[in-house]
Amino acid sequence: MAELAGLVARLETAVGRLEGMSLSGGGGGGAAVPAGPVSKFVEEYDDIVSGAVAQYLSLSQKIGGDVQKHADMMKQGFAAVRQILMLASSHQKPSDSALTSVLQPVSTVVTKVQGFREANRTSPLFNHLSAVSESVGALGWIAVAPKPGPYVKEMNDAAMFYTNRVLKDYKEKDKTHTEWVRAYLSIWTELQNYIKKHHTTGLSWSKSGPVASTSSAPAPPSGGCPPPPPGPPPPAAMDLSGGADDNRNALFASINQGADITRGLKHVADDQKTHKNPNLRSGGAPVRSAPKPFSSGPKPAAQAQAQTQPPVLELDGKKWKVENQENAQNLVISNTELKQVVYAFKCNKSTLTVKGKINSITLDNCKKTGLVFDNVVGIVEVINCRDIKIQVIGKVPTISINKTDGCHVYLSKESLSCEIISAKSSEMNVLVPKEDGDFAEYPVPEQFKSVWDGHKLVTTVTEISG
After folding, report:
1. Which domains does the chain possess?
2. Residues 283-317: pLDDT tens digits?
3. What residues have CB less than 8 Å from 47, skipping those under 6 apart?
């Protein structure tokens, strides 16, 4: 039995190596990368591919369905990165314009992966797809300088919001899904260690050899279905439309102006200065610009198509879908059942009322939208939203606010025991009913202080005074 177990282990190792060799050597087409021995950093990248990546692909195939399709796209992405590493090992860094073309195959995969998740929001494996979609931008570490390692960690952290959901859903049901989570997250952990060792401040290009050019760039990954419409950008990303060196040169040129740098600034009169006029501080917070995508972004035609999606308000199985509603102030869902859920996506300047008792409610990518509901037995989630108002008429055990700017929660007397969990969000306020029927407003802390007490890290809420 011991010999048989050893033989099985050797076979599994051999299969993993073969899958890794297939992945690292395929999918890129005829890239003009010279044959011969590969560099040390390419070999160690292949170790990640034949190890953690191969395990993730194997478990994805075992789960099947949309997860397997997503994994096939990711396989192309890891192959495209490998081609660029091969190119960097034998070529000098190209010009910024050529670098954009060199990196395009990876950008194409990132767009395809995100688009697949957006096109399959009703998938029963949506949390799996979201975990991959939120972190696929980590493949773009090859374009990040000077800190590609921390960038990959940020992408990994973005995935964990959804992998935690997978663990919660399948922990007691199917061990394959928990193993899938561990395998997927281990890819980015190993990649961070790899970058720290070989590419600490950015992709290491050869100091000798020809300068890489558009002609030497790897071809886009082949195979698979055509890419779906591009989805939203990853949580943190890059803009490759212009050269990084050009941006730095422009910055330094501005700094070198010295005192002349202020000549272009607009003069602000005393009656417009907030520190001299406290009443001006009550205005709304400045609108943050959206992060730029890793790729060149969707074409105008695709943007127009996204803006003209028809509004949806329908019951699909156990899910109420409320999508693409614009200036709809009287959206009402009634005749609900305890097993049903509500999922509102890309609603703007609208108000949704949910009557009766329901399992859960999710607001995703909504702006200036109001939600009024009677009772929720599970959770109310607000994700990637802006300027949201929620009013609880009955009871709700948990409200989760994630990646949201501006959220007001009006609690009822019956829901005062509600837990409010927030992460990566700002401008959150909870309004509690008073005896006279009015509401008292309490801000949710956004700033914290952590100190080491000799045994553990102690974190407390802190405020800026003055």
Report:
1. 10-246 (1.25.40.330), 310-461 (2.160.20.70)
2. 444 444 444 444 444 444 444 444 568 999 999 88
3. 20
